Amino acid sequence: MASIDLGAARSGSIAETASVVIIAAAFIPWISQNPAVYSLANQILIGVTAALSVYIMLRMNLMTFAVPTFMAIGGYTAAILGLRHGVTDVLLLGIASFVVPALFALPLGALVLRLTGVYFVLVTFVLTEITQLVLFEMPGWTGGANGLVGMPAVTFFGIELGDNRAVLLVTTGLALAGALITAAVTRRLRQHFAAIEENELLAQSLGLVVWHHKAFGFAIAGGVSGLAGFALVNMLLTAHPTSFSPLSSVNYIAYTIIGGKSTMLGPLVGGALLIWAGEIFALRGEFSQLLFGFLIVVVVLAAREGIVGTVSRFLLFLSSRVLRRSTINPGSGALGAPAATESQP
Amino acid sequence: MEGIVATGLIGISLGAQYALLALGFTLIFGILGVVNFAHGGFYVLGGYLAYSAVTYLGLPYALAVIAAALGTTALGYLFERFVLDHVIDDHLATLMLTLGLYLMMSSGLLVIFGPQSPAFSFPLTGVLRGHGFYVPIENLVVLAVCLVGILSIYALIYYTDFGRALRALADDRSVATAQGLRPKLLFPTAFALATGLAGLTGALVTPILSLAPHVGDPVLATSFLIVILGGLGSIGGATVAAFLVGMVEAFSAVYLGGSKGALALFVLVLIMLVVRPSGLFGHRVRGA
Predict the structure, then answer these.
(1) What predicted TM-score, i.e. pTM, was given to this entire model?
(2) Which residue from A minimizes the CA distance to B262?
(3) In DSSP terms, which residues pair with B135 in a beta bridge?
(4) Residue A55: its pLDDT value, please?
(5) Which of residues 213-252 of B touch A (CB under 8 A)?
């Protein structure tokens, strides 16, 4: 039992380290000057960051649709700070776009985290609808249907980050921050979250303050979404309600589920592959939704662990076959284990 | 005064449409324990099936509506029987499957029919004027069909053996199964019934409102709103809540303008979910 836990923890750590390294690799100035490549990299990093917050909530067996809500809070916070208060420092804006949604998530979490299962799904879906309506109905703050435009370019210690390359750097930084926070929290609280996921009542009766951990997880997930929201606003140069539509949450859920929800590599691989696939269909956008829907059905029915889980299982299977051949039964070729028992006289 | 009566009639006719939609949604949740994200998709599909039957096959509108209802019933049956049934006890899995189906349906319709709304209008037009009020005739027809539909559902659920079996399954699946009821047969049928209702509503309503691949999104949101308000799985609650929501939408659209009414409803639902997740009339059907 203990060894299984250790194994899961080890593969989790490998996945977390790998995710952080892969995202950090986007800092390297790749040779391409093609704006389409920059745009694709931006979209992938933003999508992955948002999917990470779905991943955090799934650690506690909670499926959240509320990602666009917190993205909107983070994005609009950054936009309002830049536009109305002249804050352009990317560090300050990044911190604000994490802290404000996280703080907002605390009282909200106190209300909605009492629900589980289907009811939690419904309440988060309702939240995204409310978000849309609030964005439209509060033009004094949010610019209403026009959104907010004309934010000054963000700066890093006084250096203006305005061109394509710089925007990608900002997005990468935010995605990296999101990934580091996600890795730190899920690693630190791995067993707590696992206990809640497995059996919340039992965890509580064994002395785990379940409410405490769920609220913390919800706040962190909200903050990570907020970072993605800031990155999105910074890329589009506008904060607009359509960027945070209720059904966009389906995309982030799709990235996480199709990529694999058991390790942090899942949302990363799922997000990268699906957004890239969406780009291929750029001229006929509807095909990408068709593909998402189909893949979701396939993953749920046939490959519950998603792409990452299935591939790693396949690799494990292959390596165990190879090992068995070479150590247990070196001579007998294709038939590994059965041949070994039959060879006893 | 005239305005209030006319608005009230619009509210009732909206409420009847919503009730038909929400009844299907709540049946699926009550009996199968599935949150059907594809419900809006079946509504749109019903609309497009009726449109195709009228335009390409030259069927009269009434027959086209029936064809649409049958088509969505068949698709619902097949989907439950061959896809959903494998994971029927896993809430999140069934939710993801219906979500996947919805994505495929709405984008499939977009691929086939394109993003523009096709020209599809109700065959009857005209306005009925009475003492101090006036109603478009098509609304009356839709209202009548919807009311007949709602009453049929009630009769089916409360006065037939089939309905009794469904209620037994909703109440306690393991006991009902032990008594000899067969979920393998009844689940697909119940799902098909509900998706057929969504298709019927779509075929009736889309010629009046609008038909486009994405009109299912708001329908899904409204269905959610109603069944949460009425209590997930509660048939009576869904009916009352549907008329309530219809009224609030009609009056707020006329007297408040914008989406303030919708905002108020959503906030009400949020409070409701938190304070009383079982809704106005429901009892907790499923362990949440």
Answers:
(1) 0.84
(2) A133
(3) B128
(4) 93
(5) 213, 217, 221, 224-225, 228, 232
Average pLDDT, chain A: 82
Domain regions of chain A by residue span: 2-245
- Strands B133-136, A159-160: parallel, antiparallel or unpaired by DSSP? unpaired
Domain contains B280: no
The domain in which residue B29 lies consists of: 2-275
pLDDT at A262: 84
Please report how many Cα atoms fall inside a 13 Å half-sphere around the Cα of residue B101, on the Cβ side. 26
**Tens digit of pLDDT for each residue in B220-273?**
888 888 888 888 778 888 899 999 888 888 888 878 776 777 788 888 887 877
Which pair of structure tokens corresponds to residue A318?
């292959």
Quote the CA–CA distance of A139 and A137 in Å, as a whole number. Answer: 6
What's B82's domain CATH number? 1.10.3470
Is there a domain that residue B199 lies in? yes
- Measured in angstroms, the CA of A118 and the nearest CA of chain B are apart by 6
Residue B255 lies in a domain: yes
Chain B nearest-CA residue for A119:
B288
Which ipTM score applies to this complex? 0.84
Look up residue A144 and give its two tokens: 């209403």
- Selected for mutation to probe chain B from A118, A136, A142, A274 (highest B CB count within 10 Å) is A118
